[in-house]
Design goal:
This protein is mainly alpha-helical. It is 75% helix and 0% strand. The protein has one domain (3-76, 84-194). Helix 1 (3-24) crosses helix 7 and helix 2 (26-43) runs antiparallel to helix 3. The longest helix is centred in the middle third of the chain and has 33 residues, at 87-119. InterPro entries: DctQ, TRAP_DctQ. The chain crosses the membrane at residues 21-39, 51-70, 91-113, 163-184.
């Protein structure tokens, strides 16, 4: 395998390992928020922010831990036949089915980017053009020009009314990291087919 591919696989694995190990501790933040929610509902005035914060933490925990889960091979598989195959047969099957997963993740990323654009005030039909214009205005006119490019920031409809863009940004980032990890797994499968372990 070329050095570039080996370097890519090592870099993506290391990055997703760090992010995934960090995201694992989100479960403790989630438990803390839900514990406070129970305590405040029992003894004090119920907090408005706890349920939505717990949902946001769970989304971040799940989506940022996904690439690490794929890397560790701990994602759910239907292995009626797959479990008894040789590593080379598994690599052939994974190398074929990865294209279906990449298509799905590509559609998911496009939807996440469109949803993120909506949450920062873009209501058109071409979110990628909006991001290009946003980046160009940032580098030509500075942060103020980029802020002018954005519109009304979306907020939740609950009583607490937090901004929605941070969790939508986390979702888009998590899907992008998952695409990178799936490509690394694809290169690893090609290596297994060739008899090289990456």
């Amino acid at each position: 395998m070329p050095k570039v591919i080996r370097g890519y696989v090592r870099f993506v694995d290391a990055m997703n390992r760090i992010i995934g190990r960090f995201a694992m501790y989100g479960i403790f933040a989630l438990v803390g928020v839900l514990l406070w929610s129970s305590i405040s509902k029992t003894f004090f005035t119920p907090s408005l922010w706890t349920l939505e914060t717990a949902q946001f933490i769970m989304v971040a925990y799940y989506i940022l831990g996904g690439p690490y889960s794929i890397q560790m091979g701990s994602n759910v598989r239907m292995d009626l036949f797959y479990g008894g195959w040789t590593p080379k047969q598994k690599a052939w099957m994974d190398g074929f089915t990865v294209f279906f997963l990449l298509f799905y993740l590509g559609v998911l990323l496009y939807g996440a980017l469109g949803s993120l654009a909506y949450s920062i005030g873009y209501f058109g039909m071409e979110p990628l053009v909006f991001y290009k214009d946003l980046i160009v205005s940032f580098f030509t006119g500075g942060p103020d020009a980029a802020v002018e490019q954005m519109g009304y920031l979306e907020r939740s409809s609950t009583a607490w009314r937090p901004y929605i863009w941070p969790i939508k940004l986390t979702l888009a980032l998590g899907v992008f990291l998952m695409i990178l990890q799936v490509l690394a797994e694809f290169f690893r499968d090609i290596g297994r087919i060739r008899g090289v372990e990456l």
